[in-house]
Design a protein that fits this description.
alpha/beta; 383 residues; 4-stranded parallel β-sheet; disordered N terminus; Rossmann fold; 12 helices; 2 domains
């Protein structure tokens, strides 16, 4: 069995046991407890397929928050239910799911989708039907511009690349930088942004920019070009599945190469898939599981007890995103979508990924920490 398949199987095996009673898969039909209809929030992520590990971890994180509220009495005197949809990280599937969600008048909002391209396919439907969408992962600059019901509880990708560029230029004091990006809408757009920021820094030289298929495990041709160009650091723009094969193959031809990742590299799966080859990889994150803050540790302990692995920064953002939506419902005092939207706009939420508020576009501003893989685990990176 391939390592990636094994990781997916292990997570899937424990997923249903990890979830509380407030989660249901379906089409949004009425569910009642003690005579009161539940407050319903849709969750739409890849629950199967190549990116299922992300979606499954987001579901567990969201369910922890829902259980926390339900144990305290719910919101507006009602229990809360997650209605789960599997979009397979497919734009076509997401469009169909978005239509189902907007047709269900009792769904207040949706947490989703995963990649920027998929999120941006569904968002116009949510906007046109006044359904709040909060994505914990969409980083394309144009995503939140779709409308005033569209929010992101993460930063635009340029903010992450600013941190990466600073580390390469000022901490590591390297000069020649290469980029390897997955050939998807998100990868192409993000890779171009990274290239612009590297070229704008007078301490850095962009020596090569290569794209690879997201589904490929053979990056030899791209690596050969990056090495021939003299790259000292390589910025990898992709999902966690890119990092393991890339690191193993690159370290075989250049053991000293410095690999840099974006925030979605902060997941235990890349250590399982990459082993010692991913040692030294550095990435910016909005959340670090080893933080000493009590609320962070409560979440980490509960997440590990349910799924058996540490949560990623993106899972933590899913946890906060559900909390933001529930807090907004409470402050609005009603399930009226416009009132809830206004409450989200005005919120200042003390989340485990830091204090969160939204600007006029619906973008959250995050403060980044930096992590590095040392001796088989993520630790804080220090200059």
């Amino acid at each position: 069995m391939k390592k990636g398949v094994l990781v997916a199987a292990l997570i899937a095996a424990g997923l249903m046991a990890a979830l509380g009673s407030g989660c249901r898969r379906g089409k949004g039909q009425d569910s009642r407890q003690e005579g009161k209809p539940k407050v319903k929030i849709a969750l739409a992520f890849p629950m199967t397929g190549d990116n299922a590990e992300y979606g499954q971890s987001f579901l567990v994180a969201a369910q922890i928050m829902v259980d926390k509220w339900n144990q305290a009495g719910g919101v507006l005197g009602r229990q809360i239910e997650l209605v789960v949809y599997d979009d397979k990280n497919s734009a076509e599937k997401a469009a169909s799911i978005a239509q189902q969600i907007v047709s269900s008048k009792d769904i207040v909002g949706v947490l989703g989708h995963f990649s920027s391209g998929v999120s941006m396919t569904a968002a116009p439907l949510y906007q046109a039907n006044q359904v709040i969408e909060i994505s914990n992962t969409a980083s394309h600059p144009d995503y939140s511009k779709i409308g005033n019901y569209i929010f992101r509880n993460n930063t635009v990708i340029s903010a992450e690349f600013n941190v990466i560029v600073d580390v390469i230029a000022n901490d590591l004091k390297l000069n020649k930088v290469g980029i390897i990006a997955i050939k998807t809408d998100w990868g192409t757009a993000a890779g171009a942004i990274a290239a612009d920021l590297i070229q704008a820094n007078n301490k850095l030289t962009l020596v090569a920019y290569e794209q690879v298929l997201e589904t490929s495990n053979d990056h030899g041709p791209a690596i050969a070009k990056l090495k021939a160009a003299g790259a000292e650091a390589v910025v990898a723009v992709g999902m966690y599945s890119l990092y393991g094969p890339l690191a193993r193959q690159y370290k075989e031809v250049d053991p000293k190469i410095q690999l840099m990742g974006v925030s979605n590299a902060y997941t235990q799966q890349i250590i399982q898939l990459g082993g010692t080859a991913v040692e030294g990889l550095i990435a910016p994150v909005s959340f670090f599981a080893e933080s000493e803050y009590p609320e962070v540790q409560k979440f980490v302990d509960e997440f590990k007890s349910r799924l058996g692995i540490e949560p990623s920064a993106l899972a933590a953002q899913a946890y906060d995103s559900i909390g933001i939506l529930l807090q907004a419902i409470k402050e609005a005092g009603a399930l009226d979508r416009e009132k809830v939207r206004d409450a989200v706009n005005a919120i200042n939420y003390p989340g485990i990924t830091g204090p969160t508020f939204f600007n006029s576009l619906g973008d959250a501003d995050k403060q980044f920490q930096k992590v590095v893989i040392r001796n088989g685990k993520f630790v804080q990176y220090k200059r």
